[in-house]
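Researcher: We're teaching a course module on how sequence relates to structure. For the next exercise, students receive a sequence and then see the predicted structure as tokens, so they can try to spot secondary structure elements on their own. Here is the exercise chain.
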Amino acid sequence: MPVAEDQGVLSPEGVPVLLVDDEPASLRALVSALRGLNLRVVKARSGAEAIRQIQTTDFAVVVLDVELPDLDGFKVAAWVRQRESSRRTPIVFLTATRPKRKSLLQGYQAGAVDYLVKPVVPAVLRSKVAVFVELFRARRELERLNEALRQRVARQDAALLDWEASFRLLFYNSPLPMWLFDRETLAFLDVNEAAVARYGYSRDEFLQMRITDIRPPEDVPRLMAYLAAGRPSLRQAGEWRHLRKDGSILYVEVTTHELEFQGRPAALVVVHDVTDRKRVETGLRESEAKFRSLAEQALVGVYLIQDGVFRYVNPRMAEIFGYTVDELIDRRGPRDLTHPEDWPIVQENLRKRLTGEVQSIHYGFRGVAKDGRVLDIEVYGTRTLFQGRPAVIGTLLDVTERKRTEAEIRLFQSVTQAVGEAPDFQTALHAVLRGICQATGWDYGEVWVPTPDGTALECAPVWCDRTQTLHGFHEASQAFTFPPGVGLPGRVWALKRPVWVRDVTKDPNFPRAPFAMQFGLRAAVGIPILADQEVIAVMEFFVFEDRPEDERLVQTISTLATQLGLLFQRKRAEEELRRLNEELERRVQERTAQLEAANRELEAFSYSVSHDLRAPLRAIDGFSRVLLEDYADRLDEEGRRVLGIIRESTHQMGRLIDDLLAFSRLARASMAVSEVDMDALVRNVWAEVVAAEPGRTVDLRVQSLPPARADRAMVRQVWANLLSNALKFTRPRPVAVIEVGGRVEGDEAVYYVRDNGVGFDMRYADKLFGVFQRLHRVDEFEGTGVGLAIVRRVVHRHGGRVWAEGQVDGGATFYFTLPGTGSSAT
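Model: And here is the predicted structure for the students to work with:
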């Protein structure tokens, strides 16, 4: 059922808007969001009610819920679009959830212009409805104007009928091309002589043609749409393109008047040829648009000079000189922006172009900014005509920064080269001093260094006089010394930073002021040279004029001073390094002698272990064997058992001595490094290891192993120890599973041996590779505790790493790395 309007909230006299939603709360929220828009809101809670409202009212916009109890929103929208009076009414769909692509397409095909998801954001709904309301008001105003125009045309039609005879005379004799065409067939019915002359067709040819034949094919659809649209009988048809018989294009403005001709609907067409005007206007617009677009966005200054003033400048031109555009155009000329000394050059170049002596010119001059800054300017200008009179147009570039940067680069290059080539610090200091004076315009420079006792600064014999007139000032400086804080050098020394004095003759803390005044010196700057935060010297520079502080110049000189400080540190470090090298060489000689003595002692110890310790062991073993063989019948079982333990202990001691000797020899043995085929080496070692335990069931899994650069004999010992351990500690398993693998990681080859044996507790992993370190009892697994120590020593001698992972009764994995074949390690 219909819902009453909200009286007192939305104006009943306002623009009509239809809100369709079956939920009262949602309708209230929609109405509330539209407060203050001067609307006449009509509400409906079903699709049928919405259709009834649309039949009686022309709405500015319909806000339509997709889900309605009777007809869904898509069907209502389709009905709205089928009616001529409402097919252009905007429809905004409301949905409870964000619509999927299929729903969106269905909605847009049904005629929706937008979607809103509930709950609706009031500001969004308000802004969208406001747009359609304004369009509605504009359409109403346009209809009113069209009606006024229609009435006006009607009056004109009446006048035209009254003067039909006069128009016929005008038609045939008009200087403007005119023709009549049938509005149904579009055939030409009559043409005047001006049309024949302008288009190149004869009258008979015209009468065999349709008005579409004088249009470019791509313009015909527009013509047909224009003719199909309902329009006033007398109207300006706008601008069109017509084809002449020779194929050339005419740009025309057309006025049409619909009338009856010989009982058929026809139209009279009057043509104004605007081809020449169009060509000129287009050229001017394109030229002006291109110029303005380029000029306004240009990164260089653009100007137009006429009668001694700027008629145009772009924003960049004004920015360069610190003005606004309005401050320059028609108010100032090139003389106001030129350094007085360079104005004659600029004036002469302007004269040559304005008189036509030269067409274009490119040159440089010094400009003056609004704040008094002097700028280096490069300008390119050419002669032109502006409003029919000679003018100069051109571009202007501020190259101040570039020239200064180029000068600084040249200075840095020359000073860096001089510092690099200088045999000592003093020579480098003189080169830097001279380079700074020549490149930055300082007239005089000198250096102050600490006195031998370090209590004051004295003038060094390093100085630079660019004018060759200040030798006397240098002699005067040599008579002074400055403690910290006194004079310009003393202040720099105390502060450890640059100090600028605009006029030394007026500085109360400048004891040499009388001499500076005598020689005409004014501005000065002192720059410290630091080495390890210690002032080792102070450079001092002077000029003949008062000069405000230039932070960039100070920074430039400070950078060069830093290079000198680094040079001083480098020279000092070189001297210290030379002394340390001599000390190191002496210590190396002493250490070498100590190592040689230690090696000799180690050799003697090895010999003693090999011979002196083995003799008693052989005696113990021999006598034990004699007792067992010759006196066994006199010994009871316990005695024989004890003798067996003695013999096994001597054998174990022998193996310990062998392993220790092997471990000791590894530290001294030379290495023969070559590329080792690991696949072949592992197969050979395994054949020897497994032969020592016949009858075992072993599942050996060997992956493809990358080669390595190593000592083959030493690496063989690594594989033998790791594979033997794997075989030993898998004895409790019915089937021993041993896996050998490897991979390449960067310059290293990584190898591993994994088994399913008894494993170990990771808390004690750091003990595995120590000498005599064992995690299992001897009665469980035999061994001396040296095998893994040998593995680590071999791997470390090759520059590799070794580590292990395991868990109790869960097996163990031992890893080691060696240099890969792509490594430069030997």
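Model: If you want an answer key for the exercise: Residues 551-630 form the longest helix (80 residues). The CA atoms of residues 747 and 823 lie 5 Å apart.
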